[in-house]
Design brief:
With 660 residues, the protein is of the alpha+beta class. Among the domains are: 136 residues, Alpha-Beta Complex (Flavocytochrome C3, Chain A, domain 1), CATH 3.90.700; 130 residues, Fumarate reductase/succinate dehydrogenase flavoprotein-like, C-terminal domain (Methane Monooxygenase Hydroxylase, Chain G, domain 1), CATH 1.20.58. Helices cover 36% and strands 15% of the residues. It has 16 helices and 20 strands. The strands form 5 sheets. It has a 5-stranded parallel beta sheet. Strands 12-16-15-13-14 form a 5-stranded antiparallel beta sheet. A 4-stranded antiparallel beta sheet has the order 17-11-19-20. Helix 2 links the parallel strand 1 and strand 2. Helix 2 runs parallel beside helix 5 and helix 13 runs parallel beside helix 15. The longest helix has 25 residues. It is globular and about 75 Å long. The structure holds flavin-adenine dinucleotide. Flavin-adenine dinucleotide binds next to helix 2, helix 5, strand 7, helix 6 and helix 11.
């Protein structure tokens, strides 16, 4: 099935795009060796900081998810002086806790012909050849020790009867490499990582600042040297300085309002760093997860995720006839379309998320959606229940079935689940080199806030992995290399001009939001923004749709500063003010997402431009024109300049992605 093209080529000149072709290409500083050897070569070349000097250098880590908690705990344990910040009330409440399905590792223990090379191939292909190959190799290589490390710090991975760690399959692969703790993998890993972090807090190497929101980055002498935070309880705005700053602040999928993310996930930290000069890569690369709860009412606040692991046993289908309103049990087999199994027989229900979401969107748009609003499809366990029995299925997915029942009042063992695509994971994020250092020296990034591993589409269970690899096995090597040059140098004064002017900027922004005194709640503007993005920069995108979405976003942003209502003041706990600031940042980010999507005229992975599709409705990549990462620089007057990081593939030959 092809997706309709809406006014092809309309306005493609789009004044919004500021792509510039005369800038030098970005250098990711990957050693010029076989990509599988690049990480070992790079780490061997890193300078070290001697144990006695480590307490003389300090690092700020923002975020206590798997990436931030790992980095802070590891650097603390090594003896560095670490300050770690989270807007949550405890480190373990970071959003990593929401992950259900699992974490990949290329250990090949299932004896199903898995290997490091196959992991790399699956991940590069899964990302539609828009990821950095050497970074994917690092992910594969370090994955093997991540599982041992997490086990050592207390993660209770599921085990087979004989005691060995159990695995299952996730989308986009044909092997079994996903380690899990029932349907609570993120929660268990987050508990283990938080405990490791708190151990360092107790040891005095790490100072923990909860309920502190980073609202700006302090850059002085061309280096990131601190952050400005607002204490969310007292309203105090102050500067914190250090020799280096790590942002591990998560993804920005919540810009779409309805997403699988927690309501308080936001883009502010990364966006503020971008405004201070950090390049933002591929902001339009957003993954829509095919198995979330559909939007059943306009006041619904989020789309709870039903884990991809369910696709190991659940079968996705729609009625063959558009508008068929019969109950699912009354629709005979012959009148059902198991469209993923039909279109992608080799991978079936386990085809990658971008492909499954697009196919599902096509079924819904074609009138075959089910449920009261006809905006969902069935995920059916009847076959698996018949084959394996209720006890086995509940052992595998019991808590996910309960979660579904709690949210919908329906029993998935009796009636198929109803699911639909929802914004989920952002492959885009701050651009960084191979050391995870952004374009601002001294500013590092880890986890979903970064951008290197997943290209244009992330494979399921690769994100807990990338957050853990960054936190435990990359930043603790690469940050000291940078710090080695700063031993003996004083930390920036919190009363320096740079600190004071950053504090002033935060205060004046907060004051402006409070003073606006309008009538629109930030949540209402956020919902409107999300709806515009879903329609114009969602599962599919067109030139004309993007141009008009940019207009909508600009209008929303312009009126926002007059119309917003953030009641109360900035001097105390004020949840509406927090939200108002985050929505203001979303309103800027949303424009850049559309600019990036409009600029990239090819389709690749989750970025599907209707003008660039095959006769069968699959993504049509254009490697001659677009085999690079777009990294956007914020320039004065609210515009952007595009930088380019060319992509080379030495171990995995370019090929058309095909899951049939
Ligand atoms: C519902 C759901 C299920 C998922 N399931 C899986 C799965 O099964 N497998 C998988 O691999 N991936 C999964 N993912 C993706 C994965 O969970 C995330 O990509 C990953 O956990 C992100 O970790 P992180 O450390 O980068 O950030 P997070 O865990 O999001 O942590 C961000 C941290 O930054 C802090 N923070 C953010 N902004 C600020 C600020 N301005 N000031 C101070 N602190 C700030 C937050 O308080 C938090 O501590 C899932 C995602 C969702 C939403």
């Amino acid at each position: 099935m092809k997706f309709p093209m809406i006014h092809p080529d309309a306005h493609h000149h789009a004044s919004a795009s500021h792509a510039s072709h005369d800038l030098p290409p970005l250098d990711p500083r990957v050693p010029d060796v076989d990509p599988m050897d690049a990480w070992a070569t790079r780490t061997l070349g890193y300078r070290l900081v001697g144990p006695l000097n480590r307490r003389k250098v300090s690092v700020i880590v923002v975020g206590t998810g798997l990436a931030g908690a790992g980095a802070a705990a590891a650097l603390g344990e090594l003896g560095y002086h670490v300050d770690v910040f989270t807007f949550h009330d405890a480190p373990r409440r970071a959003h990593s806790v929401a992950a259900q399905g699992g974490i990949n590792a290329a250990r090949g223990r299932a004896v199903d012909n898995d290997s490091l090379d196959r992991f790399v191939k699956d991940t590069i292909k899964g990302g539609d050849f828009r990821a950095r190959e050497a970074e994917v190799c690092r992910l594969a290589l370090e994955s093997t020790r991540v599982i041992d490390h997490l086990t050592a710090i207390g993660a209770p991975f599921a085990r087979e009867y004989g005691g060995s760690l159990a695995t299952r399959s996730f989308g986009g692969v044909q092997v079994s490499r996903t380690y899990y703790t029932r349907g609570q993998t993120g929660q268990q890993l987050q508990v283990a990582a938080s405990q490791a972090l708190l151990r360092q807090v107790a040891a005095g190497t790490v100072t923990l600042h909860t309920r502190h929101e980073m609202l700006d980055l302090i850059v002085d002498d061309g280096r990131a040297q601190g952050i400005v935070t607002r204490n969310l309880v007292t309203g105090e705005v102050r500067a914190h300085t250090a020799h280096a700053v790590i942002l591990a602040t998560g993804g920005y999928g919540s810009v779409y309002f309805h997403s699988t993310l927690a309501r308080n996930s936001n883009a502010t930290a990364a966006w503020r760093a971008h405004r201070r000069g950090a390049l933002l890569a591929s902001p339009s690369f957003v993954q829509f997860h095919p198995t979330a709860l559909p939007v059943d009412s306009p006041t619904q606040s989020k789309c709870t995720l039903m884990s991809e692991s369910l696709r190991n046993d659940g079968r996705i289908w729609v009625p063959l006839a558009p508008g068929d309103a019969r109950a699912p049990g009354a629709i005979p087999e012959a009148e059902r379309d198991y469209y993923l199994e039909r279109r992608y027989p080799a991978y079936g229900n386990l085809c990658p998320r971008d492909i499954a979401s697009r196919a599902t969107r096509a079924e819904i748009d074609g009138g075959r959606g089910v449920g009261p609003l006809r905006n969902s499809v069935y995920l059916d366990f009847a076959d698996a229940l018949g084959r394996l029995g209720r006890a086995k299925i509940f052992e595998r997915y019991g808590n996910l079935f309960e979660m579904y029942s709690d949210a919908t009042g329906e029993d998935p063992a009796a009636l198929p689940m109803r699911i639909a695509p929802a914004a989920h994971f952002t492959m885009g994020g701050l651009w960084s080199d191979f050391d995870l250092q952004t374009s601002i020296p001294g500013l590092f990034v880890g986890g979903e806030a970064g951008s290197g591993y997943h290209g244009a589409n992330r494979l399921g269970a690769n994100s807990l992995l990338s957050a853990c690899v960054d936190g435990w096995f990359t930043l603790p090597f690469s940050v000291p290399h940078y710090l080695a040059g700063l031993v003996g140098k004083p930390v920036l004064d919190v009363a320096s001009d740079a600190s004071v002017s950053a504090i002033r900027a935060v205060r004046s922004r907060t004051d402006r939001l409070v003073a606006a005194g309008g009538t629109r709640r930030p949540v209402d503007v956020h919902r409107e923004l999300g709806e515009a993005l879903q329609a114009g920069c969602g599962v599919t995108r067109s030139a004309s749709g993007l141009v008009s979405t940019i207009e909508t976003v600009r209008e929303l942003r312009e009126s926002y500063w007059q119309e917003v209502r953030a009641t109360g003041s900035g001097d105390h706990l004020n949840a509406e003010l927090e939200q108002a600031g985050r929505v203001a940042d979303f309103l800027e980010l949303a424009e850049l997402m559309c600019v990036d999507a409009l600029d990239r005229t090819e389709s690749c992975g989750a970025h599907f431009r209707v003008e660039s599709q095959t006769s069968e409705g699959e993504a049509q990549r254009d490697d001659d024109a677009w085999r690079f990462v777009s990294a956007w620089e914020s320039v004065g007057g609210g515009g952007w300049r595009r930088h380019v990081e060319p992509l080379e593939f030495r171990r995995v030959g370019l090929e058309t992605r095909d899951y049939r």
